[in-house]
Amino acid sequence: PLPIKSEPTRPAPRSRFRNAAIGLPARLPSPTKETAPNPPTPTTCSPICCLAAAAPHPPVPPPAPPPLPPASAYVHLPFCRKRCHYCDFPIVALGSSSPRGEDPRITDYVRLLLREVAATRPVSDDGGAPLETVFFGGGTPSLVPPRLVAAVLDALRARLRELVGAGVNRVSLGVQAFQEDLLRACGRAHGLEEVHEAVGIVTACEGLQNWSMDLISSLPNQTEEMWEESLRCTVDARPTHVSVYDLQIEQGTKFGQLYTPGVHPLPSDTESANFYKIASKRLSEAGYHHYEISSYCKPGYECKHNVTYWQNRSFYAFGLGSASYINGVRFSRPRRMKEYAEWVQNLEDGTWSHESGNSDTKEMAMDVVMLSLRTAWGLDLRSFSKSFGKSLSLSLCNTFKPFVESGLVVAMDVQQQALSPSDFELDLQSEFDFGSRAAFIRLSDPDGFLLSNELISLAFGIISP
C-alpha cells in the first residue's frame, strides 16, 4: 500500500525540492519563498543581505566544458490508488478496486514508455559507460507488475547500454507520518497499520539493507510532539536513509484550495523552521549524516541516483512529466497522457531529439551553484572557476563573506576542514592568490540551509544581474 521507489544500484550519495523524484524541471526557477526547493525561512532577514547584494558583477563567464554522457536514468511510473491532498505530480489515480489481471491503463502506459525508450538515441555513439543507476519514481511504482518493470529494464539495456549490477537493491517507503489523523488529513491511501506492515516486509527481505523512509513536516495541525514521535519511530525502524520534506502548498491541489502557507492550521514559518532544526538534531544524534538539505543517511548509504542531480551530471528520463538533462539542456515531457503520447509519436517521427535546444552558460552556472549549495559538500570553487571563470568565483565568495562571518556559510580548505572568517578574508584579498586557502563553500546545518532561498538568490543576482 505504500509508495515504493526502487533503484538498481549499489549503496553509495529530495524538502521542497520534490522534483528530484521526476528529474529536475526544464528550467530551474530562481529561489523565491513560493517556488524555492528549500525548507521554510525565518520571518526575519539579516540586513547583511542588502550589503552583500551590492557586490560588483564579474564579466560574462567563459563557456563551460561539455558535460559527460549520462550514466543514470529516471523512469516515471505514475500510478497511485488515489491522489494525496498535497500532490501535484503527474499521476494516474487507479482507484481502490483493480480489474482482474493487469490493469490495462498500466500496460498501455508501459507500452508507450517502451516506445519512448526505443526511439531515444544514445547520447554517445559508442554507448559510453554503462548505466550506473535506474530510479523508478511515481506515483507508486510498486503498483506496476514486476514483469513490466523488467520489460523497462530490458528496453534500457537494449537501447542504451548494459546496466551495472542490475537488480533492485534499494527501496523507499513513503510513510510521511506516524499518526493516523495526519495520514487521513493528507488523503493518504494507507494508515498506520499498513506503515508498520510495510516496514516489517522491507526489513525482513533477505539481502536488502539499503532502504529509505520519507517523512513530511509542517502538515496541517501537526505539533512538535507529533513530529518528535515520527522521528523516534523512524529511527527505531532503522532505515539506512531518511528523506525529510517540508510541506509545500501547490496550486491546484486540495491543500492549495484549503490552506494558506503560514496560516493555521498550518504552522508558521518559525514553527516550520523549528521542525527542520529538530529533524536535523534528532537524526544526527541517531547517526545519520545530513548530506543534502532534505536527505539523511547512514555512512555509505547516500542515494547514488539523486547525487547525479546534486552534482549536476547528465541523466536520461523517461515517462509522463519526467525531466531529462542532456548536453547541458533540461527538458520536461508533457504532464498529460494525451500530450505525452503525441510527444512520443513526434520522437519516433524524428521531429524532436535530445539535440533540440541550446545550453546557456549563465543558466548552467546557476544550476551548479543552487544544486551544490543544497549539499554538505558544497560548491567546489576550483572546479567552478575552471568552468565559469575565477572572477565569478571571487565575486560569489565576496558576496558570501558576511555570511561566513555570521556562520551561515562555511568556507573549507581542500580537506573540507572549516576555515576561520579571517583566513577566508585573506584568500579574497588578492585575485591572483584567490583559492590558495578556500576550496569549498557550503551552507551551515541547519541555519544556513534554512536561509538557502535568500543565499542562493544572492548568488543568482551575481551570475545573471
From TrEMBL:
Please name the PROSITE patterns in this protein's record.
RADICAL_SAM
InterPro entries xrefs: Coproporphyrinogen-III_oxidase, Elp3/MiaA/NifB-like_rSAM, rSAM, rSAM_sf
Could you give a single Gene Ontology term from the biological process aspect?
porphyrin-containing compound biosynthetic process
State the Pfam families in the record: Radical_SAM
> Radical SAM core domain: from which residue to which, for each copy?
65-286
| Sample GO molecular function, one term | catalytic activity
A GO term from the CC aspect: cytoplasm
Q: Where is the signal peptide?
A: none
Q: Which domain of life is it from?
A: Eukaryota
Q: Which Gene3D superfamilies match?
A: 3.30.750.200
- Renumbered residue ranges of the record's region Disordered: 1-40
Q: What is this protein called?
A: Radical SAM core domain-containing protein
Question: What is the species of this protein?
Answer: Eragrostis curvula
